[in-house]
Amino acid sequence: MKRLLLGDEAIALGAIHAGLSGVYAYPGTPSTEITEFIQSDPLARERGLHSRWCTNEKTAMEAALGMSYAGKRALVCMKHVGMNVAADAFVNSAITGVHGGLVVVVADDPSMHSSQNEQDSRFYGAFAMVPIMEPSNQQEAYDMMYSAFELSEQLCEPVVLRIVTRLAHSRAGVEVRQPMDMHNKGICQDRWVLLPGIARTRYAALIEKQADMLQASESSIYNKIEKGSGRLGIIACGIGYNYVKEALGDEANVLKVSQYPLPENAVRQMALEYSSLLVVEDGQPVVEQQVKSLLGTEFELKGRLTGDLPRTGELTPDNVAKALGVERKITYTASDVVAPRPPQLCQGCGHRDVYTALNQVLATYPDYRVFGDIGCYTLGALPPFKALASCVDMGASITMAKGAADAGFFPSVAIIGDSTFTHSGMTGLLDAVNDKSNITVVISDNLTSGMTGGQDSAGTSKYEAICVALGVEPEHVRVVVPLPKNMEEITRIMKEEIDYPGVSVIIPRRECIQTAARKAREARKAKENS
Amino acid sequence: MKKDIILCGVGGQGILSIATIIGEAATKAGLNLKQAEVHGMSQRGGDVQSHLRLSSTPIYSDLIAQGSADMIISMEPMESLRYLPYLSTNGKIVTGSKAFVNIPNYPEMPYVQAELDKLPSVDMLDIDAVAKDAGNPRGANMVLLGMAARHFEILSAQQLRDAIRTVFARKGDTVVEANLKSFNAGFGSTD
After folding, report:
1. Is B102's Cβ below 8 Å from some Cβ in A?
2. CA-to-CA separations, A478 to A356, A362, A485, in angstroms, rounded
3. Is the distance from CB of A163 to CB of A135 less than 8 angstroms?
4. By the CB < 8 Å criterion, does A346 face chain B?
5. How many Å apart are CA A462 and CA B6, to the nearest integer?
6. Chain B partners within 8 Å of A377 (Cβ)
7. Rounded average pLDDT over A23-45
8. Do the chains contact at B84 and A334, CB–CB below 8 Å?
9. Averaged pLDDT score across all residues of chain A
10. Complex ipTM, two decimals?
11. A222 vs B84: CA distance, rounded Å
12. What does the pLDDT look like over A314-328, one tens digit per residue?
């Protein structure tokens, strides 16, 4: 029987079965379930695979590179914006090359279901000049893990596996294979010392490998031309292929692209047979631009840049059908009695009490700003709190508050979650301490990475020590328990620390009510079973 | 044969359990299945939806095309209306009748009812009350699944009951029986 798996789970299982030794990741929607699956998979546990969460995507990427250097297969997983954090290590891993197979899974989020932008990780793959695979379905996602590790070891380069939300979070039946043994090539004998002289040689070697990468794409089983009875020529990438087939079935004349660099010969062949081509790709017009430069501006090319498909947002069966000229009857229109129902902070959540207190205290100042960060508490931007002036990237609350304070603005407050603080907030706090910036940092500590479903947070039980070690004066590191009954104490402490002309940190600490409830359920179950 | 189903409700109402049970039953029956969910921020009191596609032939798209859903299964009346553009001309709505109000601008119920009355096939029940009567107040989602099972065709009630047994097995016999009872209350029979 097939196993019913999320795209994320298919990747996880494929990696385990392909002889993985360790996964390194920081949670981020829609990639989180890959690592969670490996953490709970019986075979992975039996084999003792590394699967503990990392502090951020950069530490994850580097640790995986170390595992690769030691000759074993390693997996790195992140959401698309995590790639910005890992980028230094990622781009340079293409220069050093890899030893044990190294696959970097990046989950893009077109339509920004839970993200700040729509950046397309295929640009990163092309930028680092490494192969990219982009599965069209869950079965391919599973199978590709075998191919990706093999290709990585064959080329001695990292391979990017790019997925999007609709594959990551959609389930389908997957045929699984017999697991391979854990792979071990032994420690690498090369020296990956990227001093300029050596780096130049390695960079030249990477450029040399481009022809092999292209050849791998041209002959890849994941790229194929399907001929149908229709008149239109289509280039469909990743899950774009599904929407084309959904609309046209066997009529579709399609070049399915699931491995990059772009198979140029196949594209040229399509261009010879059809007078125009439509590019269907989820995310940004990466392939459309490449095809344009390959075929010249004279060739009639359609896609997101020409408005045949929307310039922003994810592909859907609807917008692809429309671009293909397939009409569908839509009988009912959206009802105007339906009100939006945005997500909100849980009832009883500690972040609520933090915002209640902050708003109360700050209302006593003529003007103020609270710089926000990435996590559940970003919802404090919405009613009823409307507390935040900004939310940009992981850790930006502290550094933006610092910049505003440097500009003379007061009171300048940062609010950041515990996991986000260790991910990217600590360095900014050190800057603030060194500059004696007049800021108040609230580390709202719920003892977990809440928004992604309650993963372990790297700094739990270490926050006061970290802040003091970074140079915050111990008397200005204050811990409170965010509960309505403590409101008087919390607001008094907030006021004192805001008025203190320097760096102060307030740590409201109360466990996430979701993880607390889950632990209580598990404890009850354990008691029943004993 | 195919069934395209939109499952919807508010985060925390248990629509993903419904999807899991249908998925289990479909896999066992050898049907092709795709089920797209939204995880992440939308779990927290916001609207949630899942696209569930069952077919005896291969399925390409993970998402249902607008105008082609055979059913909308909703825990809550206003949420059932949110996805109307997906409903096919003769599509059915199966929904809980009790409003889940966690927003200040939830429409007055008569307006919601009037919208539902315009549609050709709406099956509505106070699933919370039925679940409570069946002795399983947390089983409203299983009552809803039972209601939907009357219209499923592609899967039998017996196949869904078996799936409930499998999915809840690790939680013990009491939980399995409670959920079956809720399912049967929604289905209207134990056969």
Report:
1. yes
2. 18, 18, 18
3. yes
4. yes
5. 45
6. none
7. 97
8. yes
9. 97
10. 0.94
11. 37
12. 999 999 999 999 998
Residue with tokens 């010249």: A296
Q: Judge: domain B2-188, CATH 3.40.920.10.
A: yes
Nearest to A395 by CA among A367, A368, A427: A427
Q: By the 8 A CB rule, do A424 and A374 touch?
A: no
Phi, psi for residue A239 in degrees, rounded to 5 = -75, -10
Please report which helix (H) or strand (E) contains residue A78, including its range: strand A73-79
Mutate to test the interface with B, among A336, A337, A345 (most CBs of B within 10 A): A337
For A282-316, b where at least 16 C-beta lie within 10 A, e where not — what string?
bbbbbbbbbbbeebeeeeebbbbeeebbeeeebbb
Contact between residue A433 and residue A477 where contact means Cβ atoms under 8 Å apart: no
- Confidence class for position B39, pLDDT limits 50, 70, 90: low
A524 touches B at CB < 8 Å: no
SS3 A431: helix
B41 pLDDT above the threshold of 70: no
Helix (H) or strand (E) holding A210: helix A210-218
Complete DSSP assignment for A387-413: --SB--STTHHHHHHHHHHHTT-SSEE
**Residue A218 φ then ψ, to 5°:** -60, -35
Q: Domains in chain A, please, with CATH?
A: 2-218 (3.40.50.970), 224-323 (3.40.50.920), 350-515 (3.40.50.970)
Nearest to A18 by CA among A171, A163, A130, A177: A177
Q: Which residues of B touch A241 (CB under 8 A)?
A: 60
Residue in A224, A236, A225, A230 with CA at minimum distance from that of residue A325: A230
Tokens in use for A155? 């080329």
Nearest residue of chain A to residue B36 (CA atoms): A170
Residue B38 has pLDDT above 80, yes or no: no
Does residue A60 carry a pLDDT above 80?
Answer: yes
Extract the tokens encoding A379.
């919802």
Q: Which residue has the tokens 């004998």?
A: A189
- Please give the Cα distance from A457 to A56 (Å, whole number): 11
Q: Which amino acid is at A38?
A: I
| Alpha-carbon gap, residue B143 to A283, rounded angstroms | 39
pTM of the predicted model as reported, rounded to 2 decimal places: 0.96
Best interface-test mutation with A: which of B44, B88, B92, B113 has the largest number of A CBs within 10 A? B44
| Helix, strand or coil, per DSSP, at residue A218 | helix
B 78-97 residues with CB < 8 A to A: 78-79, 81-82, 84-85, 87-89
Residue A417 has pLDDT above 80, yes or no: yes
pLDDT, residue B158, reads 97
